[in-house]
Write a structure and sequence with these properties.
CATH class of the largest domain: Alpha Beta
CATH architecture of the largest domain: Alpha-Beta Barrel
Number of helices: 16
Shape: globular
CATH superfamily of the largest domain: Metal-dependent hydrolases
CATH topology of the largest domain: TIM Barrel
Number of strands: 9
Length: 438
């Protein structure tokens, strides 16, 4: 019996020695996503918490707890489809999408906070309001030193990561924020703003928006000087919201990489503020990054068309019942019941990312959620806690850890460093001037 046992053991040993090593099982999509986010936390390009503080609280922070915003009184004006305007009967509690525990759960390590103010303000009002938004967000950061670190450069972001804090930077949404003045632009940079979106939903005096009738054929000569001065300073040029011609004009002028802080691929959804393939090709040549947005109306082609159809039906009912707004409203409600609004999904966000990757590579993709600025009703991505689910989806589609790290934060970190290097190389250049307007 002893000899038989030894003989059997010898055979097993010989078989093991003579066989190739068994291949380790491939890591799961969940494991790939987790490993990527552990090495490269999410750096989101656009979050509108400052806007919520203005709309809900008039920037009064007494009693505001950034550790739990789920019971904040007020409404998300963009998310309710009101184009930034209060509804006739606002809900008492419309939960915010961002707070510190959910940022931690979402693996967020850096955030550009949008110091957006309405493009309907006069330019002088917009300047004041923008500086107020910078102030309120700096006060939120200062009130949460265990979790947040104010940053205005790439080195600070990396230092914050090592300290386990969320690096917090500022981005201004709309060129109306400078009031037509390069002097104000320089002061905005001095206040810590590190990107500026050239327009918002309508044109300003020097640049065309993607959602307004063209007035300037892109950028005016002054608009091109704005781009040049931003890059001389080291401020990122943000081309979200602008027209395709404005995108092209800015890319022609740019000497450093540009960003799209919250934009999508026009090939997937034809919304005019999304980025065309022709522009994507120029972004690759420029070295810039498109930070993919979670706003349902930009993500979903079905929802984009539905919104247009609903607007047409609303106009039709108003024309049919000019004297009976109650009948017009009832008819529109009936139309909506018969034509349910399509639901945008996490999978559709992944489709935008996949298209951009196939067109120009993963070196030019980031994330710009637009949470607390209208990115509501997106199935699978309800708030800032949900970023890991998107990375799992991308891993399921074949993206490896290194690609996911680039998308999470590697690309925007590279672009900010490039902008800083460009500014350092042009430190001796004279400031571009423009005459005062009053």
């Amino acid at each position: 019996m002893r000899n038989v046992w030894l003989s059997g053991l010898s055979g097993v040993a010989l078989l093991a020695l003579g066989s190739p090593a068994l291949a380790a099982p491939a890591p799961s999509p969940e494991a790939i996503a987790e490993a990527a986010l552990k090495e490269a936390p999410v750096w989101d390009g656009h979050n509108d918490v400052p806007e919520q503080l203005r709309n809900r609280r008039k920037n009064m922070l007494a009693g505001f707890d950034f550790r739990d915003t789920t019971k904040e009184v007020g409404e998300d004006l963009w998310g309710n489809g009101n184009m930034g305007q209060a509804s006739a009967a606002p809900r008492k509690v419309d939960p915010m999408q961002t707070d510190l525990p959910r940022l931690r759960k979402g693996k967020v390590g850096a955030q550009f906070w949008s110091v957006y103010v309405s493009a309907n303000l006069t330019e002088q009002q917009a300047v004041q309001a923008t500086f107020e938004q910078v102030d309120v967000m700096k006060r939120v950061i200062a009130a949460n030193p265990a979790d947040m670190q104010y940053c205005d450069n790439a080195a600070c972001v990396e230092k914050a990561w090592k300290a386990g804090k969320i690096a917090s930077l500022m981005g201004a949404e709309g060129g109306h924020s400078i009031g037509g003045s390069l002097a104000v632009l320089r002061q905005l940079y001095g206040a810590g703003v590190r990107y500026m979106t050239l327009t918002h939903f309508k044109n300003n005096s020097w640049a065309d928006s993607g959602t307004d009738a063209p007035a300037h054929n892109g950028l005016t000569p002054f608009g091109k000087d704005v781009v040049r001065e931003m890059q001389r300073l080291g401020m990122l040029v943000d081309l979200s919201h602008v027209s395709q011609k404005t995108m092209l004009d800015a890319l022609d002028v740019a000497g450093a990489p540009v960003i799209f802080s919250h934009s999508n691929a026009q090939a997937i959804s034809p919304h005019p503020r999304n980025v065309s393939d022709d522009v994507l090709d120029k972004v690759k040549a420029n070295g810039g990054v498109v930070m993919v947005n979670f706003f349902p109306g930009y993500i979903s082609k079905g929802q984009y068309v539905w919104n247009a159809d609903r607007a047409g039906e609303m106009a039709r009912q108003k024309a049919l019942h000019p004297d009976r707004p109650d009948l017009a409203a009832a008819a529109l409600k009936a139309w909506e019941a018969a034509h349910p609004k399509p639901v945008a999904t996490l999978a559709e966000v992944a489709e935008h990312i996949t298209h951009i990757a196939q067109r120009i590579g993963t070196d030019h993709i980031g994330l710009g959620s637009d949470f607390d600025g209208g990115s509501v009703g997106l199935a699978g991505l309800p708030d800032v806690s949900a970023y890991p689910a998107l990375f799992v989806e991308l891993a399921k589609r074949g993206m490896g850890k290194e690609d996911l790290k680039k998308i999470a934060s590697g690309n925007i970190l590279r672009v900010l460093k490039a902008a800083e290097s460009y500014a350092a190389a042009h430190k001796g250049d004279a400031a571009i001037e423009n005459p005062t307007s009053f």
